[in-house]
Amino acid sequence: MQHLATRAALLATALVLGACSTTSPDVVSRNEAQRLSTVVDAVVLNSRPVVVEGQQSGIGAAAGSVAGGVAGSGVGGRREAMVVGVIGAVVGGVIGNAVERSTTREEAVEILVQLKNGDRRSVVQAKAAETFSPGDPVILVSTGGRVRVTRAPVITAPAPQPAKAAEPSR
Question: What pTM value is reported for the model?
């Protein structure tokens, strides 16, 4: 019985740690590091807040089922423990699934941009420190099929050099 409770706790911990992943444009995955990315200039047409739906990998339901089954099986005599254990497993699975969905749900922003050639694109990315307003110059950074939007760097032209004074002719 103690062994099953330990397994349930480990599964619940794995679920919580899995929920800590992010799609933030401020966080670059290990696979994207030291890879050449394509950069395209664009201008923001519009941005709006959206929510990225939480995932249902089954880990939450499995962890909840195990925890509910273990908790329910300790109730009453042998026959009651079996019935309550099954009910606990079902209820635990439903609750575990709901917890997984809610903990992996993410605030995001949909950014509609126009490229220099006139084409329009839409990118959904996790909400980050940067905000985007219509008319903002941005760049689309593409790496391995993933795209993120970030502000375009400000490039200043070098200051004009004063003209050299003509040397007097002799």
Answer: 0.53
